[in-house]
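Sat 14:20. Reprocessing the chain from the morning session after the first attempt stalled halfway. Input below, unchanged.
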Amino acid sequence: MQSNKKDLAFKKLLEFQYPELFKKAMTFKQYQQEYMSRNKDNPLKYGNNENLIEWGSDLIDFYFNDFFTFQDLPNKDHKTFTSYSDIRKQKQLILSEKNLADAALQLGLKDEMLVSINVNSDLKNNPKIQSQAIKALIGAQYFDKKKDLNYLRKLLITLYQDLIKKQLDESISLPKQDNFKGEFKEFMDKHQEYHYKLNFQELKNKFDQNQPIYEYELVINDVLPIKRNGEQKKAVEKQVFKDALQLLKTDQFKQLLEDSIKNSSVIIQQSGISESKIESQIHNNLQFVHQLGQLERSLQQNEQINEKEDFGRLVESFLMKF
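Finished this time. Tokens:
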């Protein structure tokens, strides 16, 4: 039943009030040139699809953003998108040449395409040509429906659902690559009350002079440092962003951050210490630094013992001591 509905929706993409627009959409420039060289006195009435391909390409991009951003189309079936960056990453995959070519074949456009007057030409099997055919078809539908974007949206929704389902079903089954640095930056962009500074230095290795030690220190709001070091630079950077992101999402860490800001204000008011010296003063004297160390150690122990154990419970157990 569902398949029949999809087939009917696809067929509507082939229905034209002005059939000459469909013929134009299926006529490629090479065919027109070859035809004209042999029939100079009898030119093609409808021209070629070159401009329609451009129109269709722009419309495909437009409806991708429309369906993903405003219609919330993919998230109705695939609960995978939480930010615009996620959507943008999928664009090249979903609207790939191969996927559009497959859709063109599903619509039966291969039999309608006029690519070359040479009957032995293999151009109809070229995925690029096939993808251009469906772009030209969409461009032609835009003019056939008198530039009515809402009407065209209804025609295209089944096509996009099919493209999205095909691509996302495949991508969801693949292992997800962690991007803790990107996730951390995205989190900070959403929380303007936080800012951070990343410090890096290369240290000498006491045990191996040829192997340096890489150290990253991520300082949040100028008072809370998270420091990691190791022999693999990328791994250390990844770890510091991963740990910072996990800590930032805990209520306990947020409370520590608020306390640190309050304490820094008190120090300024009571002792007149300059802001450049606040960090060292806080690190030496305030209890929240010790609590931060406990939080970080609990995170590391959690990963070593059992990656699936609830980090929140460990944090709470440590903070109950203070």
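The domain at 2-172 is CATH 1.10.1520.10 (Ribonuclease iii, N-terminal Endonuclease Domain; Chain A).
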